[in-house]
C-alpha cells in the first residue's frame, strides 16, 4: 500500500510539471540550416531591411505557415513575421542585426506556439522559404551627413555686385563728359562764326564812311586855298 501510494504521488507530480516544461520552450525557434522545400527558422532580427510587407496575409492568421505560403507563391527566398504583419524578400536582413531569440516573444495569432517577432519594438522572426539554400544578407545602410558652407556662397555674390556697380558708374560718366565737350566745341564754333560774320562787314562799312567824310572835308579846303592864291596874284 505504501509503495502504491508513492508511485501515485510521483505520477501526479510529473503530470503537474508537464505544463511548466511546455511553457519553458521558447516561442522563437533557433536558427537552423536551410533545407530545400522546407521552412527553416533563421533567428530573431532587430530590423526587416530589404523585406516588403504583404497585404494578402490576414493578421489573425499570421504564422510561419501562412506567411511562408504567401511568399512562396512569389518565389521569394525569405519571409518574416513581426506582430500581425508578414514580409517577403530575397535577402536576409543584415547579419549584424541578429539578436538573441529571447527578444522575439510575440505569439503568432495563427499559431500561438511560435513567435512572430515582437510587435511593440519591431523585432522580426526570419525564415528561409526553402527555394534556395545559400541566401545573402543585405548590407547595412549607413546614413551620410552633408555639410553646407554659407560663406562660400556669399563671397562670389558680393564680388559680382561691386564690379557691376563700378562698371555702370564709369559707363554713365564717359558719355556725359563726351557730350559736354562736344556741346562746348559746338558753342565755341558758333561764337567764332557769329563774330566773323557780324564784325567784318561792320568794320568795312565804317572805313568807307570815314573815307567819304575826309574826302568831303578836303575839297572845300582846296577851293579856299586857290581863292587866296588868286587874290595874292592880283595884288
From TrEMBL:
All residue ranges annotated as the WSC domain in the record: 38-130
Looking up Pfam families in the UniProt record yields: WSC
Q: Where is the signal peptide?
A: 1-23
Keyword Lyase assigned? no
List the transmembrane segments.
Answer: none
InterPro entries, alphabetized: WSC_carb-bd
Q: Provide ranges: composition bias, Low complexity.
A: 144-214
Look up keyword Signal and say if it applies.
yes
Question: Keyword annotations for this protein?
Answer: Signal
Q: What domain of life is recorded for the organism?
A: Eukaryota
User: What segment(s) does the record annotate as region Disordered?
Assistant: 144-218
Q: What protein name applies here?
A: WSC domain-containing protein
